[in-house]
Write a structure and sequence with these properties.
Blueprint: E1 2-9, E2 14-15, E3 20-25, E4 32-38, E5 59-65, H1 67-73, E6 87-93, E7 99-106, E8 111-113
Parallel strand pairs: 1-7
Antiparallel strand pairs: 1-2, 3-4, 3-5, 5-6, 7-8
């Protein structure tokens, strides 16, 4: 079914359009860059799935969300250094035949995630 993500800006009450996200594979004691994408108007990957069902494999992954740059680009005044710079979410895929949805709820000072549907 693949891998997807969705980011909501809880400070402004809207999707985090324009936020940069990077995806890495983190297995076998090494980190391998897979791709970068910019979230669309709905806070999602503009290409749909981040990884298709064919691309998703058993293993560990990391999504890195560029939180500080996103909020700074929206005119949010942040202290230096800012509290959150990048949010990294490490997660495992045990059954690639299932859909893995990794949402992020974020403000400049907090974040929350869960395995969505």
């Amino acid at each position: 079914m693949g891998l997807s993500t969705h980011v909501l800006d809880t400070m402004h009450g809207r999707p985090a359009a324009g936020m940069a996200v990077q995806l890495y594979a983190t297995g076998d004691s090494k980190i391998t860059f897979i791709k970068t994408f910019i979230l669309n108007f709905d806070g999602r990957n503009p290409d749909g799935l981040v990884l298709t069902a064919e691309e998703l494999q058993v293993g560990t992954y990391r999504l890195v969300f560029d939180v500080a740059s996103y909020f700074k680009a929206r005119g949010t005044v942040l202290p230096e250094p800012n509290f959150l710079n990048q949010v990294s979410l490490d997660f495992g895929v045990a059954n690639p035949e299932q859909h893995y949805h990794v949402p992020l709820l974020v403000s400049p000072w907090s974040y929350s995630t869960y395995r969505g549907s």
